[in-house]
């Protein structure tokens, strides 16, 4: 037999409820039995006392008939003298010995007793001490006994048996109801468990049905939402793995072919050129692998967020840029956001790298407030991005023809990494219309800085604006 801790929830809940029902109904049964017995006993005593007192009143008035009359259910009445002799009696008690040997004392003239005789059963008797007359010389006490047969309820255990049967029946009913109700609930839980047991990577599209029970419906809704997120994440990972393997396969295959040719045809292949080409391929592989590691770390970055002045960050990054393509930076006095500095620096760096790569002569970056958002806009004067490609450029390993021409060794992950970082900071990264070239806009939630709450400003130049040269920046025409 299994111990209680290893049995099913259904068995345990039924046993616990049955025990509680048994104790409750048993207590109620004991109380009910006591009340019924007490009430029956008190009712019988009231009748015997009433009959005895009525006869005594008539005897003292000199109008007591012989034999003693028996009103109501009281059939046994006897008048007994101080010597224990029956002087008068009712018809039913005429030839009987005294109903009781109890002699109430003078200070307690009425006593009640239950008398049981093996042959005749039990009876309830009231004994009253009194004097036949009020004369001082008539001091010998007499006793009146009035008795009735004890009710069957008191003389047997039928009441206890009846109450016991009720206790067992109610306990069984409570256990049966719990067994059925808990079974219905647990069947629904078992159905969900069976569906969960069939889940695998091949059928993540499975969704749980909606049970009738509200709590289970909430559970299945939550599980379905979790499956939605899991399916989406798994598909993204599968797509990412497929795209990553495809992007890594090409340079690895090219490198393998070049090295194989150098070994097979040593007289026809320039070893220095082969090594140079191999180094270029390994550089591209290194860049792809580094970017893949960044994407993997974005989802589990343990670094805490802190308050950062985005305008100051923009000025610092613009100042550190190479001078091949000039970068002009504009920033308002305070643009505070919550984030991880290393990640936000990477976003700004990726956007500036991309702008400088495609610009013809200049790049402009601005940081300002707009309502409750911090905005960083990076604009170049290059060929721009066609409207139909503005969403696609943020997909992993996507490289437009102009980008492949200007940077053949690129991984196509820079903008995808930047978009993921923006989303991780509850922000967005988009491509917007620009009169000339491309315009990338990063938006992040503003926070209150130590100097007070952030107030909205307009793009791109405000009073107190800073630039990378340290002088007030001029608005771009």
UniProtKB/TrEMBL annotation:
Subcellular location: Cell membrane
Superkingdom in the source lineage: Bacteria
Domain HAMP: 183-235
Record-linked InterPro entries: HAMP_dom, HATPase_C_sf, HATPase_dom, His_kinase_dom, HisK_dim/P_dom, HisK_dim/P_sf, Sig_transdc_His_kin-like_C, TCS_sensor_his_kinase
Region Disordered, annotated ranges: 448-477
A Pfam family of this chain: HATPase_c
Entries under CDD domains matching the protein: HATPase, HisKA
Transport recorded as keyword: no
Coiled coil: 216-247
Enzyme class: transferase
Keyword annotations: Coiled coil, Kinase, Membrane, Phosphoprotein, Transferase, Transmembrane, Transmembrane helix, Two-component regulatory system
Domain Histidine kinase, residue spans: 243-448
PANTHER family: SENSOR HISTIDINE KINASE TRCS, SENSOR HISTIDINE KINASE YKOH
Name used for this protein in its record: histidine kinase
């Amino acid at each position: 037999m299994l111990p209680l801790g290893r049995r099913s929830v259904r068995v345990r809940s039924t046993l616990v409820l049955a025990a509680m029902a048994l104790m409750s109904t048993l207590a109620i049964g004991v109380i009910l039995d006591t009340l019924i017995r007490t009430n029956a006993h008190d009712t019988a005593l009231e009748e015997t006392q009433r009959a005895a007192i009525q006869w005594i009143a008539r005897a003292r008035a000199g109008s007591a008939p012989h034999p003693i009359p028996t009103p109501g259910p009281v059939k046994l009445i006897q008048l007994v003298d101080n010597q224990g002799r029956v002087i008068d009696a009712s018809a039913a008690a005429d030839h009987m010995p005294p109903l009781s040997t109890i002699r109430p004392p003078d200070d307690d003239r009425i006593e009640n007793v239950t008398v049981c005789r093996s042959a005749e059963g039990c009876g309830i008797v009231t004994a009253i001490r009194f004097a036949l007359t009020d004369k001082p010389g008539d001091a010998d006490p007499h006793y009146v006994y009035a008795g009735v047969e004890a009710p069957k309820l008191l003389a047997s255990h039928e009441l206890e048996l009846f109450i016991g049967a009720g206790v067992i029946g109610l306990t069984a009913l409570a256990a049966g109801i719990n067994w059925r109700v808990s079974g219905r609930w647990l069947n629904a839980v078992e159905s969900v468990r069976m569906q969960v047991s069939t889940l695998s990577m091949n059928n993540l599209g499975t969704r749980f049905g909606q049970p009738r029970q509200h709590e289970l419906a909430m559970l299945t809704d939550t599980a379905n939402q979790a499956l939605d997120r899991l399916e989406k994440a798994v598909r993204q990972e599968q797509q990412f793995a497929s795209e990553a393997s495809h992007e890594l396969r090409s340079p690895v295959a090219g490198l393998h072919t070049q090295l194989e040719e150098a070994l097979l045809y040593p007289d026809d292949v320039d070893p220095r050129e082969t090594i140079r080409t191999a180094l270029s391929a390994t550089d591209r592989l290194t860049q792809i692998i580094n970017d893949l590691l960044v994407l993997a770390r974005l989802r589990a970055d343990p670094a805490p967020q802190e308050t950062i002045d985005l305008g100051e960050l923009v000025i610092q990054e613009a100042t550190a840029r190479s001078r091949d393509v000039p970068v002009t930076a504009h920033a308002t006095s305070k643009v505070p956001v919550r984030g991880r500095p290393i990640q936000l620096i990477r976003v700004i760096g990726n956007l500036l790298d991309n702008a400088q790569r495609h610009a013809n002569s200049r790049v402009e970056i601005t940081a300002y407030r707009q309502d409750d958002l911090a905005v960083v806009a990076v604009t170049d004067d290059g060929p721009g991005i066609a409207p139909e490609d503005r969403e696609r450029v943020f997909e992993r390993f996507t490289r437009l023809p102009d980008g492949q021409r200007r940077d053949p060794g690129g991984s196509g992950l820079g903008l995808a990494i930047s978009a993921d970082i923006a989303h991780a900071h509850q922000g967005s990264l988009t491509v917007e219309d620009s009169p000339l070239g491309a315009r990338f806009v990063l938006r992040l939630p503003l926070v209150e800085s130590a100097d007070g709450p952030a107030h909205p400003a307009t793009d791109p130049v405000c009073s107190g604006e800073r630039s990378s040269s340290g002088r007030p920046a001029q608005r771009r025409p």
